[in-house]
Write a structure and sequence with these properties.
Mean pLDDT: 96
Number of helices: 12
Strand order of the largest sheet: 2-1-3-12-11-4-5-10-8-9
Structural class: alpha/beta
CATH class of the largest domain: Alpha Beta
Distance between the termini: 25 Å
Number of strands: 14
CATH topology of the largest domain: Isopropylmalate Dehydrogenase
Shape: globular
Radius of gyration: 20 Å
CATH superfamily of the largest domain: Isopropylmalate Dehydrogenase
Low-confidence stretches: none
Bound molecules: 3-isopropylmalic acid, magnesium ion
Helix content: 40-55%
Order of helices and strands: EHEHHEHEHEEEHEHEHEHEEHHEEH
Length: about 375
């Protein structure tokens, strides 16, 4: 089978880390009989500059037809003042919504070589392995009504709507339980059922899915603010953490930083399985943003993007061995002491984006030998 892939490098450091992903794809093609058909298109600020839109219909069509989309990053200060529908981020949000990528998997994994890079004590984070499952197509990100309105007295009013339905909660809960079954068997579900109706519904529906389909697993309900606190107090108590779109946005940034660097972590956004093909639409992206302050300087860490490709092999292309190969190559260059600026430590060897790419390809070569 030839995998149909769409690369959307986007803005800031997106193109630089995507270039390293391309090199790894070429390596896979040469060394693992991995056939792919790679297309590339615009998203975000660069798309706004060239087409007037954060993503075009044509790029959307390609994304819908792809086995997987490999996404870089979007955004930058030059577009901060843009109207809402002309913000680079709208490109990403349209991809999520139109492809119905409701399940966002964000692993927070502490690489042994980086235990000291965390802002928490090493014993709190060594061996840390949390999977955050964030609902991605509902909640306050998309709920209607939304907008800013002018009132009669000249002042203004802004509204966003937090909205969840039974099915939206049940399907994300199932993703979390399915993952937990292959991991430590424990799911924490975070909401604010003490103040929000959506929180009450969330808690009840997750409980229902647990009682009817996953009684063998452990479910722990936790208020989202307490989850934020527990993540820095004792992060290793978590295995799978499932939560809504907004809490997931915040808690996943927090969890990722526990591991030492945002620059290290990949993510997968998955849709429902197609009844006929059994395949899901999918988009893979590093968790880090476009980092405009270091863009174009060959300083960015390409590891999160390369690990996102590993997730793509695992979840979209049914190639667990290929995924492991990439993950092991990353571990080995870290163990050898190579570091980009974001994870630099005393006594280690500083490398550039392309330098890190070179090292990972070399590690792949020696693993293949
Ligand atoms: C993320 C980002 C996005 C979000 C932005 C870029 C729209 O922060 O993927 O976590 O808020 O979902
Ligand atoms: Mg975020």
């Amino acid at each position: 089978m030839t995998a149909k892939l769409l690369l959307l490098p986007g803005d800031g450091i997106g193109p630089e880390v995507s270039a390293q992903v391309r090199r790894v794809l070429d390596w896979l093609a040469k060394n693992r009989n991995f056939a792919f058909d790679l297309d590339e298109d615009l998203v975000g600020g660069i798309s706004l500059e060239k087409t007037g839109l954060p993503i075009t219909d044509k790029a959307m069509e390609k994304a819908m037809a792809a086995d997987a989309v490999l996404f870089g990053a979007v955004g930058g200060p030059q577009w901060d003042k843009n109207a809402f529908d002309k913000k680079p981020e709208r490109g990403l949000l349209r991809l999520r919504k139109d492809m119905e990528l409701f399940a966002n998997l964000r692993p927070a994994l502490c690489f042994p070589a980086l235990t000291d890079a965390s802002s928490l004590k090493p014993e709190l984070v060594s061996g840390l392995d949390i999977m955050i499952v964030r609902e991605l197509t509902g909640g306050v990100y998309f709920g209607e009504p939304r907008g800013i309105e002018k009132l009669a007295d000249g002042s203004r009013k802004a509204v966003d709507t937090q909205l969840y339905t039974t099915e939206e909660v049940r399907r994300i809960a199932r993703v979390a339980f399915d993952l937990a079954r292959k991991r430590g068997g424990v799911v924490h579900s975070a909401e604010k059922s003490n103040v929000m109706h959506t929180g009450v519904l969330w808690r009840e529906e997750v409980t229902h899915v647990h009682e009817t389909e996953y009684e063998d697993l452990k479910l722990i309900h936790i208020l989202a603010d307490n989850a934020a606190m527990q993540l820095v107090r004792n992060p290793k108590q978590f295995d799978v953490l499932v939560t809504d779109n907004l809490f997931g946005d915040i808690l996943s940034d927090e969890a990722s930083m526990l591991t030492g660097s945002l620059g290290m972590l990949p993510s997968a956004s998955l849709g429902a399985k197609d009844a006929k093909t059994g395949k899901s639409k999918a988009l893979y992206e590093p968790i880090h943003g476009s980092a405009p302050d270091i863009a174009g300087q060959n300083k960015a860490n390409p590891i999160a993007a390369i690990l996102s490709l590993a997730m793509c092999l695992r979840y979209s292309l049914d190639d667990e061995a290929g995924a492991k190969l990439l993950e092991d190559a990353v571990s080995s260059v870290l163990n050898a002491g190579l570091r980009t600026g974001d994870i630099m430590q005393a006594g280690k060897t500083a490398v550039s984006t392309t330098g890190m790419g070179d090292a990972i390809l070399k590690a792949l070569d020696s693993a293949a030998r």
